[in-house]
Design a protein that fits this description.
Strand 7, helix 7 and strand 8 form a beta-alpha-beta unit. The protein has 11 helices and 10 strands. Helix content is 35%, strand content 17%. It has helices spanning 41-56, 71-82, 105-112, 122-125, 131-141, 154-160, 182-190, 212-215, 237-250, 259-271, 292-301; strands at residues 16-20, 26-31, 61-66, 86-92, 116-120, 145-147, 173-178, 196-201, 221-223, 280-285. Helix 6 (154-160) packs across helix 7. The protein is α/β, with parallel strands linked by helices. The chain binds pyridoxal-5'-phosphate (PLP). Pyridoxal-5'-phosphate binds next to helix 1, helix 2, strand 7 and helix 7.
Length: 313
C-alpha cells in the first residue's frame, strides 16, 4: 500500500493571487485546505510524521485530546482510520458521556471513523499533561502512541515546516492563524532569513505550547493579537460578512475559527499600510471546514447571518 501521506502532494497546488493593495502590496494564499477533504490543512502536516513514527514503532493505538468541536480530533480520527490505527479521543466535557444527543457533528464524525471516546470533566482535562493522568489512561487503554492536544510535538513541527517550499521564498511575509502554535513553529523554522512570519492568534490569550517555545528564539516572527473577535470560536456579523464577501469574490471558503480571522487581519493590516511598498504576503489556508455546519446552526439560533458555502457551477 502506498503511504497515505506520500500519496498526497502540495506540489500541484499553486499559490493563488488574491489582491493588490495600495503601494503594490500583494496578498496571495497557499491552499493547504485542498490537500485532503478530511485530513485537511495543517492537521495533515501535524499527523504525517507522528502516524509514521507510531506505525514504525509498532503502536496499534493513537490517543489524543480535544474539545467536542476540535479539527484535530476529526483529522486524527480520519487519518487514524486510513492508517489503520485504533484511535482514542479524550474529550473535554463529561456531560457528553451520558447524553449522545448532545454530541457535536465533529464527535459523530470521529465516531464514524472508529474513534472511541473518554469524556472527562474540565478540571480533569486540565491535567492532560500530568504523569498521573497519563498513567491512569495507560492502565485503562494499554499501550498507545500519545499525541498531545492540538497534535503538537517535534514531529508535528517538522511536518508543518514542509508547508513552505522553495518557490515561496519570493514572499516577504508568511501569515498564519495560531492556536497551539505548532503550525507557526514549523513556519518559523523553515522561513528564510529574509522572511517574516506573522501569527494571528485565534485565542484571546495567545501562548505557545511545549516545543514551540524552543523555536521562538528565532526573531523572524510577530503576533497580532487584535483579530481574535472576542476569543476562541467567537464570531460576529462583521466577520461573517467578510468571510462571505471573500468566498464570493475568490471562490475560497474560510473557516470561522481560524482562517476567517486571519484573512480579515491581513486585509485590515494591508489597508492600514502596515506592509512596506511592494511587499508580497502569503497567507496560509490551514483548512478546517468541518465545524462550519455546526457554527451555522449556532448563528441561525442567534439570528446572525450564516456562512455561505461555495456554489459549484
Ligand atoms: C488547528 C488549526 C489551526 C491552529 O494550528 P496550531 O498549530 O494549533 O496553531 C489553524 N487553522 C486551522 C484551520 C486549524 O484547524
Amino acid at each position: 500500500m502506498q503511504d497515505f501521506f506520500d500519496s498526497i502532494s502540495s506540489e500541484n497546488i499553486p499559490n493563488q493571487f488574491l489582491r493588490k493593495f495600495e503601494d503594490g502590496v500583494e496578498v496571495w494564499i497557499k491552499r493547504e485546505d485542498l490537500l485532503h477533504p478530511e485530513v485537511s490543512g495543517n492537521k495533515f502536516r501535524k499527523l504525517k510524521y507522528n502516524l509514521r513514527e507510531a506505525k514504525a514503532t509498532g503502536f496499534l493505538k493513537i490517543l489524543t485530546f480535544g474539545g467536542a468541536h476540535s479539527n484535530h480530533i476529526a483529522a486524527t480520527a480520519a487519518a487514524g482510520n486510513i492508517y489503520e490505527f485504533q484511535t482514542i479521543g479524550i474529550i473535554r466535557g463529561d456531560e457528553l458521556k451520558a447524553n449522545r444527543n448532545k454530541w457535536s457533528a465533529t464527535l459523530k464524525y470521529a465516531k464514524s471513523c472508529g474513534m472511541s471516546f473518554e469524556f472527562v470533566s474540565r478540571e480533569k482535562y486540565r491535567e492532560k499533561e500530568s504523569a498521573s493522568f497519563l498513567k491512569e489512561l495507560r492502565s485503562k487503554f494499554g499501550k498507545f502512541y500519545l499525541l498531545p492536544e492540538g497534535g503538537i510535538n517535534d514531529l508535528a513541527i517538522k511536518g508543518c515546516a514542509e508547508i513552505l517550499n522553495s518557490e515561496d521564498r519570493k514572499f516577504d511575509f508568511i501569515a498564519v492563524s495560531v492556536g497551539t502554535g505548532g503550525t507557526i513553529g514549523g513556519l518559523i523554522k523553515s522561513a528564510g532569513t529574509n522572511q517574516k512570519v506573522l501569527g494571528f492568534p485565534a485565542l484571546k490569550s495567545a501562548h505557545f505550547k511545549n516545543d514551540v517555545t524552543k523555536l521562538v528564539v528565532k526573531t523572524n516572527w510577530e503576533l497580532f493579537s487584535d483579530y481574535h473577535f472576542g476569543g476562541y470560536a467567537k464570531v460576529d456579523a462583521a466577520l461573517i460578512d467578510f468571510m462571505n464577501k471573500f468566498s464570493k469574490e475568490f471562490k475560497i471558503l474560510l473557516d470561522p475559527v481560524y482562517t476567517g480571522k486571519l484573512l480579515f487581519g491581513i486585509f485590515d493590516l494591508a489597508e492600514k499600510g502596515y506592509f512596506p511598498a511592494n511587499s508580497k504576503v502569503l497567507a496560509i489556508h490551514t483548512g478546517g471546514f468541518q465545524g462550519i455546519p455546526e457554527m451555522n446552526r449556532l448563528l441561525k439560533n442567534k439570528n446572525l447571518p450564516q456562512i455561505n458555502l461555495i456554489d459549484e457551477d
